[in-house]
UniProtKB/TrEMBL annotation:
Tree of life domain: Bacteria
Record organism: Candidatus Enterovibrio escicola
InterPro entries: Transpos_ISL3, Transposase_DDE
One Pfam family from the record: DDE_Tnp_ISL3
UniProt-recorded name of the protein: Mobile element protein
Leader peptide range in chain numbering: none
Domain Transposase IS204/IS1001/IS1096/IS1165 DDE positions: 2-166
Length: 233
């Protein structure tokens, strides 16, 4: 243990609870509908879990129709969205005031869906808002872990040593330095001012840069990275 360390709860785990609260509300609303009504909510989970500014025109049109027919769904969605906005605050005090304002928006009907997040915020208040004093997250480590899992799946049960080699030496990701030529001393009987003699290439492989792996993973997180070709046999 580190004495006097400040505990900071990762904000991504906190906002994830808002999505779970919305999901509870969505399922409760759907459970009260007829099969025909539920068919009208096609892909509702996919749409509702997206941020409002990320909705396409077609998705926003569908969402607008849903909340006209099911106002509680719209209320739950807006609570989720406004909770996310709290994390745009610049200071701890601003964030706390934004949270208290959000808390006042939670109606008795919505409390049963958002109660877990409200309790968590109360129990871990200092640790949650410590993020605004120390804005750090575990996103880098978790991205690296996810990348390793993707590699492990595509490696089909390789040993740890083989998996490690694939991470470090996968073709296309490794950092390679090649020496193209080397200057030799000028001989005494040389006619030219200098002599450049080519020699066989010297290749130094430094393995894969972690930042390169993370960047590649973020570019296409839906499709596993092709790791079938290795730089070494």
């Amino acid at each position: 243990m580190i004495p006097n360390a400040t505990i900071v709860i990762d904000k991504f785990h906190v906002v994830k609870m808002a999505n779970k609260s919305l999901e509870r509300a969505r399922k409760a609303i759907r459970s009260q509908l007829t099969p025909q009504q539920r068919r009208g909510l096609l892909k509702d989970r996919f749409v509702l879990l997206k941020r409002k500014h990320e909705l396409s025109d077609a998705e926003y049109l569908r969402y607008s129709g849903w909340i006209l027919n099911y106002p509680e769904m719209g209320e739950a969605y807006e609570l989720k969205e406004s909770f996310f906005v709290i994390w745009n605050s610049q200071t701890r005090d601003e964030a706390q005031q934004a949270y208290y304002a959000w808390l006042r928006l939670v109606s008795p009907k919505m409390t049963r869906y958002f109660d877990p997040i409200i309790k968590a915020m109360g129990n871990w208040h200092n640790e949650v808002f410590a993020y605004f004093d120390h804005p750090i997250t575990n996103a880098y480590t978790e991205s690296l872990n996810n990348l390793t899992r993707v590699m492990n799946r595509t490696s089909r049960g390789y040993s740890f040593e083989a998996l490690r080699a694939k991470m470090l030496f996968t073709e296309g990701f490794q950092k390679v330095k090649r020496t193209l030529y080397q200057r030799y001393p000028i001989p005494n009987n040389a006619i030219s001012l200098f002599d450049m003699a080519a020699e066989p290439q010297i290749v130094t492989n430094y393995g894969s840069s972690i930042s390169t792996l993370i960047k590649e993973f973020k570019m296409d997180s839906k499709s596993p990275i092709s790791l079938t070709k290795s730089a070494y046999p």
